Amino acid sequence: MKSKVVVSNSTQELLQDFPLVRSRDPVEARDILRRYGVDMTTSKPSEFFMRTNLAELPHIGLYFLHSSGATRLLIPKREIALVQLCLEGNAQLSSGQHRVELSQGEACICSPGTSAQLEFGRNSRQLLLRLPQRVLERSIASLLGFKPRQPILFDPVIANDQPRYLGFRDLTTLLASRLDAKFSVWPRNVLLHLEQSCITALLYCSRHNLAHLLDTAVNDDVPRYVRTAEHYVDSRCDEDISVEDMARVAGVSISTLTRAFLKHRGYSPSAYVKRAKLQHAKRLLESGAASTLIGVALRCGFANPSRFAQDYRDAFGESPTETLRRCRPGRDPDAQKH
């Protein structure tokens, strides 16, 4: 199935309740876009008309852009990734040595810290997804159970005929088509889950320097003793667990267990223990089973509450205090620390 054939809402104006630009004046449109760090030019001002909408979710931004004339956007170097999905017409991304041509249903991506030039043909409709680098890195750390040392770098070309991409494309366009002015009254937790689904789908459908770690994390060809060690940890998150304990239960040496975790999971056994304990802490906070933040940290084996709070934020994108407030409105976590 060719992706360019099946964007069902390509002629629909997405995000229409969030207007940003409605203008036939290229100077007016350029001045508005400059407020958002983007410059714009057009080759034929007499044919120009631009309609742009912007919906801001808790951590990401969704843009819908319709241009009747040939238009060029200049994106400076910023700590954000920008995904461009062509809903209708043709487009082109130029970034460094890369030049990507897009037709309907296809997408490309610009890495954080790189400048780009986006060019749209006549009567084109584009959906742009803006993702801060810190949000991407937190998402990867949450999926892997550890924070990679190197920043993420994307290949601008996305395999547009792959099932993973088609799922990301359909999920993102569905979200954009369903957002209206009332979305702001949705619980913040709902919005966080919606945007996180899009981020996770993107990380799995795109090519980047950390993709091999994600593929390793979901590899089903994992030795039984690794799963045995994982089950042991998952069932004892309230206890002190060492790598020696994991190796003993699994029936292998520490070095064998460590090599297997690194090969099949992409992280060490000790990183898995931390990941499991952080997940357990999150469940305690969300369920109301925790009485104090310090108590949660100590119960899950974190002797340093400050370090626990930092590890928790790296894993889930919010502090333990924010989780407690989100799940139990009206409660003052600061008053419960001691």
UniProtKB/TrEMBL annotation:
Domain HTH araC/xylS-type stretches: 227-326
Assigned keywords, A-Z: DNA-binding, Transcription, Transcription regulation
Gene3D superfamilies: Homeodomain-like
Pfam families: AraC_binding_2, HTH_18
SUPFAM superfamilies documented for this protein: Homeodomain-like (SSF46689)
Signal peptide interval: none
Keyword Ion transport part of the UniProt annotation: no
Entries under InterPro entries matching the protein: AraC-bd_2 (IPR035418), AraC_XylS_family_regulators (IPR050204), Homeodomain-like_sf (IPR009057), HTH_AraC (IPR018060), HTH_AraC-typ_CS (IPR018062)
Gene Ontology molecular functions: DNA-binding transcription factor activity; sequence-specific DNA binding
Protein's recorded name: Transcriptional regulator, AraC family
